[in-house]
Amino acid sequence: MRESDPRCFAGLDIGGTSVKSILVDASGNLLGDMVEVASRVKDGYEATFVQLEEALGLLTDRAGRRQSDIAGIGLDVPAPSSNGVIRVQANLGADWVGTNIRDEFSARAGVPVYMTNDGNAAAAGEYAARSDCDAGLLLIAPGTGLGGGLVLSGGQIYEGSNGLALEVGHASVPFREAGGELPDCSCGLTGCAEAWVSLMALRRRLGIELAQDKWKDHALNASDASIEEKAYQLRDYAENDDPLAVSLFKEQAFILGYAIANWVRLFDPGLVVIGGGLSEASFRDRYMAWVIEGFEDGSWPIYLENPFDTQAVSTQFEWARGGDSAAALGMAFVASEVFG
Ligand SMILES: [Zn+2]
Asked: What separation in angstroms does the CA of 2 have from each of 23, 24, 59, 222?
């Protein structure tokens, strides 16, 4: 009974613009709605801790709980981390790197803290949002970059020995530009999946396509907007069936599906969840069909359908269900599992 166990668990998702937070009870049931406060990651971790404390206060107030009822916190950060320490700066203030953020915040809040990266948190959120997901899942999230996370059977996040697993965006894919070259990736390598499947990739591919003769009369060529702004507009164009926009999203989705075939050969997750902003696009059904086309091109038959039961699909694809609260929900779920 809930009355006999007053403990609750908080999930805190630190993003670049906001901190999203969720509270659950000892059984993992939601307590109140998601609370969102401003993010101050660029001002350093101390400034962010103040925001996290504000979120915790709002969460407990609105749920009619006391802060002393919080028995554990799950915290996710937008950077790879190992044992509470961020190793790579990403878009955070400089003092985040090398500090044990998990232990510092745990000491300050007076409760145990579990910390991981945002891709793992979102994968845990998708797991928590499905009551029928015993076998785990692989989450792939195309956005500004290309992130991912793997949840094993039973709900455990797979982080690797250094917290650096599932950097799916930086796995190589066998695709080249028309001239034969491999595209540069933000990580310093060439030919990464993220260099094809991300908002950053969309900017590069759009620039290349707009220079082609076939698109010389395209409305985006007449526009004075920056290439960044034009790439943002592509989603609206695709929703209106613009051939250039559709072809660029189709290319990205196909390459994503082809890359997923490799990751399915590694992990055989059974369920692949596609997250990121495209899950809200009106053309998402077509996008998913292109992903599956690429997957079928790169996969083996055994990962498409069960050889002993031709009615059974071996690898299911679904859109993310957790929306923008998935990572916070995942962290609250993990905190209730780890500290409950
Ligand atoms: Zn890369």
From this structure: 14, 11, 18, 62
Residue 201 CA to ligand 1 center (angstroms) comes to: 11
Can you give the pLDDT at residue 1? 46
Verify that 154 and 35 share a domain, yes or no: no
User: Mean of the per-residue pLDDT values for the chain?
Assistant: 94
**Which is it for strands 35-38 and 70-77: parallel, antiparallel or unpaired?**
unpaired
Regarding whether 224 and 121 lie in a shared domain, the answer is no
Q: Residue 189 Cα, ligand 1 centroid: separation in angstroms?
A: 5
Task: Identify the pLDDT of residue 133.
Answer: 81
Please indicate, yes or no, whether residues 107 and 198 belong to a single structural domain of this protein.
no
By residue range, what is the domain housing residue 153?
A: 137-320
Residue 100 sits in a domain of what CATH number?
3.30.420.40
Helices (H) and strands (E) in the chain, counts: 9, 11
Q: How far is the CA of 203 from the centre of ligand 1 (A)?
A: 16
- What does the pLDDT read at residue 93? 82
pLDDT in tens, 238-257: 999 999 999 999 999 999 99
Alpha-carbon distance of 340 to 9, in angstroms, equals 8
Q: Which residues lie closer than 8 Å to 213 by C-beta, 6 or more apart?
A: none
Task: Find the 174 Cα to ligand 1 centroid distance in Å.
Answer: 14
Q: Report how many domains make up the chain.
A: 2
Are 168 and 288 within one domain?
Answer: yes
3-state secondary structure of 148: strand
Together in a domain, 233 and 295: yes
Name the residue with tokens 């916190």: 73
For residue 77, what are its two tokens?
């950060």
Please tell me whether residues 33 and 87 are part of one structural domain.
yes
> Does 255 lie in the same domain as 106?
no
Sign of CA dihedral 53, 59, 61, 67: negative
Q: In percent, how much of the chain has pLDDT > 90?
A: 85
Specify the higher pLDDT residue, 154 or 181.
181
Please report which confidence band the pLDDT of residue 310 belongs to, taking 50, 70 and 90 as the band edges.
Answer: confident
Predicted TM-score of the model (pTM): 0.93
107/171 same-domain check: no
CA of 184 to the centre of ligand 1 (A): 8
